[in-house]
Write a structure and sequence with these properties.
Largest sheet: none
Number of strands: 0
Shape: globular
Number of domains: 1
Helix content: over 70%
Order of helices and strands: HHHHHHHHH
């Protein structure tokens, strides 16, 4: 199958049972693993894993950007990014990249497993598990409901992940990076920008436009609000810890 021949309805894991089952199994498994506290050397695996995700994120960002530019040129506007036509079908090259993004969220579940195999949970464990479990359903909903705003989210998230997973790779191999703090700041900018885009979409709807996937979009709005609040808290905690060390 070539990207131009992609059809979401015929794609593997397109049923809601797939992300729902994966999210539940993932949550139960990592909670059990956290209690067992195994001790396994995973640094080489983590280094490779992070480089794979860094490369995958870059490829998805560039591939999606190319198709977004192509569609915007053919429509002579970027309005569709903020209000997708309800008649649009999730088929073709652009939706193929959204599908690859959805599949990548299954692979990202290894983040937690590899960390827990070392015998200690990742920082902010609850936020980590909540994010990974819910994002599976979110990415599925993008395709299933032809959700408005998804490509802005996809481009922002994959761009953040290029930086984030390269940082994780550097940390695993013992390289110190001066831009560590900016990773969290970039994530906060991502969620804040998403909220700004919601305002644009709400304005279009209020003006009489019909946009696809608005119910799923409302759930995404709530999800992004919780993430924005959580990441601001993480950033503030880190700032307070640094300030305490200087005292």
């Amino acid at each position: 199958m070539t990207p131009s021949e992609f059809v979401w309805a015929d794609a593997p894991l397109s049923s809601v049972q797939a992300p729902a089952t994966a999210a539940v199994c993932y949550t139960l498994f990592v909670l059990l693993l956290a209690r067992l506290k195994p001790s396994v050397e995973t640094k080489p695996l983590q280094a490779v894993h992070n480089l794979i995700l860094c490369g995958m994120s870059a490829a998805m960002a560039l591939g999606t950007l190319r198709e977004v530019v192509a569609r915007s040129s053919s429509e002579s506007s970027v309005r569709w990014l903020f209000c997708e036509n309800p008649a649009t079908q999730p088929t073709g090259a652009l939706w193929f990249w959204s599908y690859l993004y959805y599949l990548s969220k299954y692979y990202e579940l290894l983040d937690t497993v590899l960390q827990l195999l070392k015998g200690r949970p990742p920082p902010h464990f609850g936020l980590h598990v909540y994010h990974h479990a819910f994002v599976l359903l979110m990415a599925w909903g993008w395709l299933e409901y032809v959700q408005t705003l998804q490509y802005i989210g996809l481009l922002f998230n994959t761009s953040v992940h290029v930086l984030m997973y390269y940082y994780y790779y550097c940390r695993v191999v013992g390289k110190d990076v001066w831009w560590k703090r900016y990773v969290t700041q970039f994530q906060i900018v991502q969620f804040a920008t998403s909220l700004g885009c919601y305002v644009v979409t709400l304005y279009l709807i209020y003006s009489g436009a019909e946009c696809a996937g608005t119910r799923a979009l409302a759930l995404n709005f709530v999800f992004n609000l919780t993430l924005l609040h959580s990441f601001v808290g993480v950033l503030n905690t880190g700032s307070k810890a640094k300030a305490a060390k200087k005292v």
